[in-house]
Structures are given as structure tokens and as C-alpha cells.
């Protein structure tokens, strides 16, 4: 598998002004050749000049890009398939829902089938990210119904907790369909008043996620070839401190992950 970083490695920094060029610079600093640019840096909003500059920077630095979007409407999916073709992105990671848009499983299947030939023609794999809008078995039903090598799952290790499902449940259900991994370590702590728990992010290797075992399971399946580091960094009171904390966490996470024997 190939290790990379994404715009959700730096969710706070992107919210506070980090851009696509900064992300490429971070990848160079870490010595990784893969980035995933997600819906927090939406490519479809870039003007032509910015798209050209982005593409040139990718080529000059020999960096592969995966593209992310949200809101699985047919025209939006079509638009992003063409963006993938333009940047030779082989993974198109999509979050199905967006704000007030909550399509049914049947609608999702219809939309993807309408673009399936184009995915196949351009050799692009659509990776649906498990989010809290659907259960794992619903994502599995979508993949099985479409039955295409060009459609799979972007497995996020924490998102499905918002749907009341554990990491064990999503691995059991979605691992066979996983084509892209979001490593996001996490912790669970009891609240001070003892009536409830809070789930938040941790530096990779310092939380509850058994990363070495997860990577071994994925390697055995031999369908997932890219892994992107994502983070849920609890913010500080000061924006600048939050940004620095996120940068520090990313450095420690990448250092831990690169030491594992799982990468090309």
C-alpha cells in the first residue's frame, strides 16, 4: 500500500487558510508521494488558472492525487469524474450526503449506475466513504448491487461510530469492499460527571485503533492500495495554537506510520 496525506489531515488548518499548494509542500516534507484533496478544498470551485497551477505542481513534484467530494448528485459525480480524468486520479472518494441532501440507497445505486461506464472507461474507482448517514450493511448493499470493480468503499475508521457502529462491525462488513483507507486514530473517555463518554481523535498509534492489524487485514484482501492519514484534533482556545497542534500531530502520526512494514 501507499501512504499519503490529505486535506483532512489538516482540517483546522484548511479551515484557517491552508491551500492545495501547502498540502503538496507538506507531502514533500514527509517524503510521501500521494495526497487526497477533499471537499474542504473542493476542486470544482477552483478557476482554470488555479487548476493549471495545481496540476503543474503535482507533475513537478511527482505526486499522485486522489480527489474527494460530497453530495452524490449525478451532475456532481459526473463533474468529478472528469476532474479525476484531468489529474489522472484513480480514486474518487465521495461522501454521499451533504447538508440537507440525504438520498435513499436506491437513489444512490441509480446515480452510480448512470456513470458506471464512464468510471470504467477512465479506469477510476469510486470510493464511497462510510459516514454516519447510512449503516455499514447499507453501504455493502450499494456495492453489491452495482457489482463493479470500479466501485468500492473508502473506509474511515471512526465515522460509523456516529451511526452507532463499532470499528469491528464496519471491518467485518466493509473490509471486503475497501479500496481506500482513512487512518484516523481515536480515543474514548468518560466525561467528568461519569454519565457518558466522548469520542475524539488521537495521534496515530496512540489511540484505540489497532493500526498494524488493520493494515495486515487490508493487505490480505489485496484490493486497497492507498491509505490517507486523517485527524480529529480537539481544538485549543486559540486558532494559531490549534493549527500548530494539528501540524504536530500530523508529524508524529506520519513518523509512526512510516515505521510500519506496510508501505511500498
Keywords:
about 260 residues, alpha/beta, TIM Barrel, 8-stranded parallel β-barrel, 10 strands
The total of beta strands comes to 10
Q: Report on the biggest sheet.
A: 8 strands, parallel, barrel
Q: Report the order of strands and helices.
A: EHHEHEHEHEHEHEEEHEH
Q: State the domain count.
A: 1
Tell me the layout of helices and strands.
Elements (H helix, E strand, L loop, with lengths): L1 E5 L4 H5 L4 H11 L3 E4 L10 H13 L3 E7 L3 H14 L3 E5 L9 H17 L3 E5 L6 H11 L4 E6 L10 H8 L3 E6 L2 E5 L6 E5 L9 H11 L4 E4 L9 H20 L6
Parallel strand pairs: 1-2, 1-10, 2-3, 3-4, 4-5, 5-6, 6-7, 7-10
Antiparallel strand pairs: 8-9
Helix pairs in contact: 4-5, 5-6, 6-7
How would you characterize the overall build of this protein?
The strands form two sheets. Strands 1-2-3-4-5-6-7-10 form an eight-stranded parallel beta barrel, surrounded by six helices. With 264 residues, it is of the alpha/beta class. The protein has a single domain, classed as Alpha-Beta Barrel (TIM Barrel), CATH 3.20.20. It has helices at residues 11-15, 20-30, 48-60, 74-87, 105-121, 136-146, 167-174, 211-221, 239-258, and strands at residues 2-6, 34-37, 64-70, 91-95, 125-129, 151-156, 178-183, 186-190, 197-201, 226-229.
Amino acid at each position: 500500500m501507499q501512504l499519503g496525506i490529505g486535506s483532512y489531515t489538516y482540517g483546522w488548518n484548511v479551515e484557517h487558510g491552508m491551500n492545495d499548494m501547502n498540502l503538496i509542500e507538506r507531502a514533500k516534507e514527509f517524503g510521501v508521494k500521494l495526497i487526497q484533496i477533499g471537499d474542504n478544498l473542493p476542486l470544482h470551485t477552483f478557476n482554470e488558472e488555479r487548476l493549471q497551477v495545481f496540476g503543474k505542481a503535482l507533475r513537478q513534484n511527482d505526486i499522485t492525487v486522489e480527489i474527494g467530494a460530497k453530495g452524490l448528485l449525478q451532475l456532481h459525480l459526473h463533474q468529478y469524474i472528469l476532474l479525476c480524468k484531468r489529474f489522472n486520479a484513480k480514486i474518487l472518494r465521495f461522501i454521499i450526503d451533504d447538508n440537507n441532501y440525504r438520498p435513499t440507497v436506491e437513489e444512490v445505486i441509480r446515480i452510480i449506475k448512470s456513470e458506471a461506464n464512464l468510471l470504467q472507461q477512465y479506469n477510476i474507482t469510486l470510493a464511497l466513504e462510510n459516514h454516519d448517514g447510512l449503516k455499514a450493511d447499507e453501504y455493502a448493499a450499494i456495492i453489491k448491487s452495482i457489482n463493479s470493480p470500479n466501485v468500492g468503499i473508502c473506509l474511515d475508521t471512526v465515522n460509523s461510530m456516529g451511526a452507532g457502529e463499532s470499528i469491528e462491525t464496519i471491518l467485518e462488513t466493509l473490509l471486503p469492499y475497501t479500496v481506500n483507507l482513512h487512518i484516523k486514530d481515536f480515543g474514548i473517555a468518560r466525561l467528568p460527571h461519569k454519565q457518558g463518554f466522548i469520542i475524539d481523535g488521537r495521534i496515530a498509534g496512540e489511540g484505540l485503533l489497532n493500526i498494524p492489524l488493520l493494515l495486515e487485514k487490508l493487505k490480505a484482501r489485496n484490493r486497497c492500495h492507498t491509505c490517507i492519514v486523517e485527524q480529529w484534533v480537539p481544538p485549543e482556545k486559540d486558532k494559531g495554537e490549534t493549527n500548530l497542534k494539528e501540524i504536530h500531530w500530523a508529524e508524529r502520526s506520519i513518523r509512526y506510520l512510516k515505521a510500519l512494514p506496510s508501505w511500498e
